[in-house]
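2024-03-11 09:14:02 DEBUG pipeline.ingest accepted 1 chain
2024-03-11 09:14:02 DEBUG pipeline.ingest length=557
2024-03-11 09:14:03 DEBUG pipeline.predict start
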Amino acid sequence: MKRALALAALLASVPALASPEPGAAYGDGMVLQRGEPILISGTSAPGSTVEGKLGTDTASATTGSDGTFTLTFSARTASTDGISLTLRDADGETVLHDILIGDVYLCSGQSNMELSVNRALNTWNELRLSPDDGMRLLTVPKSTAAVPQTGFSEPVVWRAADADSVAEFSAACYYMGKQLRADHRDVPLGLIHSNWGGSAARAWFTPESVANMYGDEALAQLRLYQRDPLAAAQAFVPKWYDWWRANDNAREPWTDTSMLDWKPIPKFSFWNEWTGTGLDTNPQANVWLRQSIDLTAQQAAGEGSLAIGAIDDLDLTWVNGHPVGYTFGWGVERTYRVPAEYLHEGENEILIAANNMWDTGGFFAGPDRLSFTAANGDTMPLGAEWEYSIGTVEGVPPRAPWDANAGLGVMHNYMIAPLGPMRLKGVAWYQGEADVGQPDYDAKLRELFAGWRRQFGQQARMMVVQLADYAKPEASEPAQGGPGTWQRAMVNLSRENVDQFKAWFSQLEYVAFEGGVLELRTPSKFAQRYIETHLLRPLVAAVEAELGPVTRIEFKG
């Protein structure tokens, strides 16, 4: 008995042998593309032989030095009968069940594709009628990365269409799939939902496309950020410095914060709630935030960690005049490494240059999310006693290649790359508003789709959807109608803000101007909201130059 117990203990201490792991997007209940060679990727021990069996078809491959493999199976016809996939190597096997053969579509883009079924019309009845085992859904979690990842930020599963799986799924994608299933009941359908509201097209670029459109330097910056965020931020900061100096009469407040007019923040919240500061009525601004901490010699002797919560939208942060981090992302919590040489005994100054370009600005997370942790383990809360100073500089600073919704390839790297080389029938792309006013959108789309075809196969059809009547190209001439002064204001605005005029201001229709109140008509609530939050200052300036002081703008539907 003692010998048996000893043997059992020994076996328990030996690590379990690893079986081949399929790629992150391959799982039970998935759909594989019909009519094309079927590619199954995964990982195993470097240099090992992986044997695969899909139904009765077999394939094998040898893993590379990185442990990856790709199995190629023969093309198959559509089938509603589930089959199994077995992956086997010298250490064990992995089996996936209930795999269908049909058509697979990727649905991607921004908020119009992201809009879920439970936010669309006739939701209750649609969910009641949604069960369909021949339609399988995969939702990709939102996340970004500077370089391509092999797995998603969270595990994903394929789910048959039913009231639960359909409710949070992309409405545009689901209704497309519903029609395809009605037209071809004998062809199973796999739908992949990978979207991010407000995202720019470039955020979905492959690394090769990033290099083609923005150069090898941009790609090198992303790789540096992956290795060392502090080094990447410091390499990028000179661009920010140049932008600020050019717009603030060569001043450098980060070198001497006493040149700014400081006031205690009214409360720890979004600055939209700071009544009477001007930020409550115009939150699209550049705002300086300042705090200080006292450190002992022991606390300042080693590298520290600075957590500033989430800043809405963009921050550049210094400690004692040294830049330690640069991040865009309204819901992204920042934690920055502070080298020991940046710290000293006594008072240490933390300075944040925050920019808000949309809706709310400033502190996104609660005060409990802000702290400094010293090398000796001491943690000091930073959720109180902040000061602020509103910058005179307008506009948006340069954006780093790794920022959240417009970074170069950052969404592809975590939301598309892990799909691996699976073949697709097509891609439904619903995006464009985030790129309004930006040049070369046609070139961006061509590069985007070329990159995705390199990943998913040249057979993948790219289907582009756009908002109807959105930013019509013919609306490039100044608006007509209204008094001559309004026409002149629009002419001046079109000369000074070419892209914004074409996309936004040209949609405005003059109604009346009386007692400082300007009444305008917009084609949609969306256009009104965008102009109010992004473009009000140049509009008011142009109108006041011709019509006189504007105290209020009223938008009509």
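2024-03-11 09:14:41 DEBUG pipeline.report The chain has a mean pLDDT of 89.
2024-03-11 09:14:41 DEBUG pipeline.predict end
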